[in-house]
Amino acid sequence: MKDYDIIQHITGKSLFIDDVNVPDGTLYAKVFYSKCAHGKILSLDLSEACSIKGVIKIFTYKDIPGINQIGGIVRDECLLAENEVHFIGMPVALIIAESKFIASEASKKIVIKYEELPVITDPREAFAKGQLSIPPRIFESGNVNNVWDKCDVIESGTCESGGQEHLYLETQGAVSYPLEGGSIKVISSTQGPSAVQKVVSEVLGISKNKVEVEVTRLGGGFGGKEDQASPWAALCALAAFLLNKPVKLILSRHDDMVMTGKRNPYSSDFKIGLNSEGMILAYEVTFFQNSGASADLSPAILDRSLFHCTNSYYIPNVKAIGYCCRTNLAPNTAFRGFGGPQGKFVIECAVYKAALKINIPPDIIQKKNLIKENDHFHYGQKAVNVMSGKSWDKAEMDFGLQKEIKKIRQFNSVNSLYKKGYAYMPICFGIAFTNTRMNQANALVNVYTDGSVGFSTAAVEMGQGVNAKIREVISRVFSISHDKIKNEPTNTTRSANTSPTAASSGADMNCNAVLTACNNILERLLNSAADDLGLINSEGLIIKDEKVFLNNKDTGLTWGIIVENANSKRISLCDYAHYATPDLFFDRVTNKGNPFRYHVYGTAFIEVTVDCLRGIYRIDSVKAVHDFGHSLNPVIDLGQAEGALMQGLGWMTIEEIIHDKKGRLLTDLLSTYKVPDLHFTPAEVIIKFLNEPNPVGIFNSKAIGEPPLMYGIGAYFAIMNAVREFNPDASPEFSAPFTPEKVLLKLYENTFAKDLHSPALSISDNKSN
Amino acid sequence: MNQNITFLLNNSAVTAVLNPAAVTLDFLRSCKLTGAKEGCKEGDCGACTVICGTMENDKVIYRTVNSCLVPVMNIHGSHIVTIEGLNLNNSQLSPVQSAFLSEGAAQCGFCTPGFIVSLTAFFLSSGNLKNNNILDFIDGNVCRCTGHSSIIRAAVNIKKEIGNAPDEFEKRLLYLINKNIIPEYFLTVKEKLTELYVDPTDNNNSDMPDYYVGGGTDLFVQKPDEMLSSDLSFIFKRNTADNVFEDDGYCCLRSSSTVTDILESALLKNIFPGITDFSELFGSTPIRNNATVGGNINNASPIGDMTAFFLALDSDVILTSDKSERAVSLKDYFVSYKKTVRSRGEIIKFIRFKIPKKNFFINFEKVSKRTYLDIASVNTAIYIEYENERISKINISAGGVFETPKFLSLASEFLTGKKINAEVIKEAVRIADAEISPISDARGSESYKRLLLSRLIYTHFIKLFPELIDIKETV
């Protein structure tokens, strides 16, 4: 199948934000940001910087004509700092110069003085000091307190999961230029064009219809450009608007890593109770979410942690509490999985610890407690078309997992330098924005008189193949070839008031909107064709491979003819349609309802080898049976599953965000923040399609973007098992990522080898060695 | 200080007046060749990868480079191939591109041109395709979307499809053109490069520069802006066959030897048959094509990989200036953090080590968060001469545990003359631990680095003398 986008990519012709042709005279912007994590700004001296030749202007919050406020869920975030700074990387001033180089030189000449205030980086400390962005959120079903007595086994503990840098290969950026009549155009690398439009209109103090936002494609998003593309677009637009000149703002990798938020780190407490058969009776969990300096999307992310705190398991008594804790780090934000991975990691830790206590493999507990048809999730939704057991059983059978486990045991019995470990990882992920209002999309489909088709939707292409899927829908409805169909950039003048492309729902919602538009056009075309053929109505008329058939007989009419004929009869060849995901409701007081359209399930089996001398490890194999529904495009869906899986593995293993006590990010470059590379990819990645239809999905398909990321969680426990094969005295602590450092320290925990060195020290601020 | 830079850009000769320290990526993108992307500007992502061809012995040697780190001075007189220069005329796709299409190996597409360029370079490389691993050529490219699985499938398929191209240069080109891997104009490159021949001494080099620039892989990561306004002397010589040579029982490596030169040197392979296993842990293919021995040593990073290796070989540094030449033991070369004994105007001519005789063992260990293309948390190299069941000579070096690359003199001294057993190594580890003073940073806490070095010292011995020491005796 010819895919337009991918052909542009492999020939190097795709235009990303930094590649867009800019008008002559375009100016370049650079953001000057706070180097202090918490403080009062005592003075800001721009004079020397302004005097550099080629510097056009330096803007501060005082120049903002509208409001200096960009907070989405909570109004707690300035675009440019006023009198206080709240994190290192908080934008303070915007330098506009004739070149990138000059802007960068000027930023070194700005002199700022702070009065330093206490810095909080730890969410538990923030909680203790009452620094909460929103009131606590509590999801409850049954009554855990009535059940602890009846449990045969109770385990409790704490666990940590770290942040994660999105590392979209294309950094954040925007290009903006003034239009006539006080309007402005912004080309942005954003997942949420309407979000950018809103922020720009508020910052500039002009109405939304004067702000046109356009997106062709993103060089990766992963949630990092859902809300956090907006400040850069707004700053760029601010300069373009005030100077009446085109302006370009592209963040350097370092600036991007310092200024933008990451996956929220969590610190959590859990308590789990089981009966003697290994059935989980009660689960209590408290999430201390590190939201960073402002709420951003953290409240919504926290909700998803609460929704997914039981992963794939049915637990009759659940109490889940979430605290959105404000710290002095860059505001953390959406990242593929959106709180789901953080929630699931904790229950898996709880199950692991309980299994150790009972002295059985964790997979016995995992399998026993998988949610079944007509069970209820703790938020009240009934589980239907449940695929948890099916995917687990198929994985067991197709991959011969019992045999694999025997091989692992055999390996461990004869090897002392290397140890293997394995883990099962079932997943269950709800599809829909948990904020019901956001579950809407729209689409414009234009059929041109030559039979070619253009479409424009709310969906933003970021490599997830949403446009290819939309083309597939159009191609199926009209029965025309993909070559005839072209996507237009996402643009707020064509798709207004839209939700960001996020929550794995971009394809579902926008394909549905396109489907409606296409069906409307098709109906008109077939009626017109019926008229051409002298029929009373279009019954029995279909298009197949661009030919029109009546009761399977070729009528001689073609796609091209009926389109041309319809236009000559002044029948519209275009349609605009809106889609709202049906049957969603959720009561945010009782925290019960039907927040999801459906759930995605699957089971993975992960195998690792730990090098017990060096403390390094390899993920040997990941085998999964994943619930794709009937895939709209198996190549794209497989690619999404493999890519998400790898991000999940990275989050659990080598991707480590480190801040010092002063709130300074130490892993602020690709040389210090390591994502999985080619060599890190497991030698064996097999993802099988469960291939069960999804009755409520478009053409029986299911969403794919986020769920497979959570298979990666299994890697943590596989490594832990391998470490404990070498050192059975290693205590089961839960602190992800499980870096080579933590592995080595665990391998030699409670052995003489560790007595060698002096106790832990603080992170040094100076030279690195 | 701007100067004329002339090179062949895809199929056309280009001459531009440029600051010689401007990086190639910026120049390419200013020419509207936007296929090469800026992903990190520090050689860690590969989105900017281009191929650089230089004339050597009447053929063009092609190697990948990170265009974000290569100053334009270093491409003077070369052939630079970008993704745009790989596209075939008739909008036909090359087999590399087609394989990406059928495997869905491009998602967001930002890294894709870099991968296509690197994979095409595999076929253009001078090596024997059958023996070379195609995946090694994309070890400097990072994709955040695909998880690399589909890219690996595509690469393996392409290699299968293209088979083994002839080794001989002209025949190889014809074969590749025939297979649509590269466009036809490649046949004329040799002629064009000869035509635009530039005098290699025509580089405006200063005698007392602020910096000597080798491959640029460190300087242009650390201080690209400063380079633009500094007095520079460009000393990089790509693909010089005699970069590694033997002289009076010594193995000598010219300062501008790249890691790739070392890897490909018959002399070094002969001395250390296992050297490939270590050197793959140094950077990535495009970094290895540019990073020089002189740069790695002079950068004086406490975790320089090559430095650790040459320290264990008890190497000498030969420093030269207008006035004099002197030899300094590498052990004495580093004074303090990032400071060496080299004075302004002095340059490393070459480094040398005595070619070891029989009964020697050598090993290099490096542990980093990610095994490949990462900076070590700790590295260490060991050289042992072993006679009559005793250690007759031993050198152990360690990086990442001190403000300079560290020669573990006390531990080495202690082990000299000893038998190898767990008790002895345990004592050596204890002595080594007292010699070091690691700090906590992004590469690990102090306690981790201490434990890690101790384990890596055990690793040397367990790997080299598995019959004499068992891991169980070390815990």
How would you sum up this structure, described in words?
The complex is a heterodimer of chains A (about 775) and B (about 475). Chain A is about 25% helix and about 25% strand. With about 775 residues, chain A is α+β, with helices and mostly antiparallel strands. An eight-stranded mixed beta sheet of chain A has the order 3-5-1-12-9-10-11-20, with helices on both faces. In chain A, strands 7-15-14-13-8-30 form a six-stranded mixed beta sheet. A four-stranded mixed beta sheet of chain A has the order 16-27-28-29, sandwiched between helices. Chain A is globular. The N and C termini of chain B lie far apart (about 60 Å). Helices cover about 30% and strands about 20% of the residues of chain B. Chain B is built from 17 helices and 18 strands. At the A-B interface, helix 1, helix 3, helix 16 and helix 18 of A face helix 2, helix 3, helix 4, helix 16 and helix 17 of B.
Rg of chain A, alpha carbons: 27 Å
Nearest-integer average pLDDT of chain A: 96
Neighbour order of strands in the largest sheet of chain A: 3-5-1-12-9-10-11-20
Chain oligomer state? heterodimer
Largest interface: A-B, 96 and 99 residues
Strand content of chain B: 15-25%
The residue ranges of chain A in which pLDDT falls below 50 over 5 or more consecutive positions are 757-769
> Judging from the principal axes of the Cα atoms, what is the shape of chain B?
globular
Instruction: Please give the share of residues in helix of chain B.
Output: 25-40%
Structural class of chain B: alpha+beta
Number of strands of chain A: 30
